Amino acid sequence: xxxxxxxxxxxxxxxxxxxxxxxxxxxxxxxxxxxxxxxxxxxxxxxxxxxxxxxxxxxxxxxxxxxxxxxxxxxxxxxxxxxxxxxxxxxxxxxxxxxxxxxxxxxxxxxxxxxxxxxxxxxxxxxxxxxxxxxxxxxxxxxxxxxxxxxxxxxxxxxxxxxxxxxxxxxxxxxxxxxxxxxxxxxxxxxxxxxxxxxxxxxxxxxxxxxxxxxxxxxxxxxxxxxxxxxxxxxxxxxxxxxxxxxxxxxxxxxxxxxxxxxx
Length: 264
Known about the structure:
Order of helices and strands: HEHEHEHEEHHEHEHEHHEEHHH
Number of strands: 10
Strand content: 15-25%
CATH architecture of the largest domain: 3-Layer(aba) Sandwich
CATH superfamily of the largest domain: Periplasmic binding protein-like II
Distance between the termini: 53 Å
Helix content: 40-55%
CATH topology of the largest domain: D-Maltodextrin-Binding Protein, domain 2
Number of domains: 2
């Protein structure tokens, strides 16, 4: 009888601990999370980010209210607290003021140019020196500090065209309506057909830098420090047990998956 009682106590303690952990992670309502259409991260309902969030839902036991929307709207709603989480985010000092970040992959952006442009443009300075060249970007997207400073210089000269998503950007790049884009392989390998890709010049304009961490982002309006540490622990557990690596390998060759796993 005493053994049964002790076993029941252990079970009840486990259930209570699990309930407390779920409450800390989930809060008292569904978590509002946004995807945006961007290459192999998320495209028409499938991708690395979708699989990652599916695993987070399963492990946390939380309910998610998921939507797909433009990146610029996502950042505004994270700022105001109308949105709780999003995927595929780059961290900046300004965003640190209102959001928490946790990396899950490292990616490097490259310059993608039609071959006729690539013949005379070998780096960012060459592009800047030719006033007729126009860059296409996704509205609200950050490319990393060095690229963003360069994009801002082009923007001041009215040499940037913004698109609501990457699909529109690469449609216009392939049609030569813009002269270049900055993107990572997860994007252009999905959005350019092999024949189109063969007519593009792809260059690493910042070879000295290893790339940027891509993060899950959490609004500070919804997650306090205790809750974010619980989520960070869950994400790091998924990294340690190989779950995140397995997700990458569903979409990429082993060599590319290994590069993504260098989160910091």
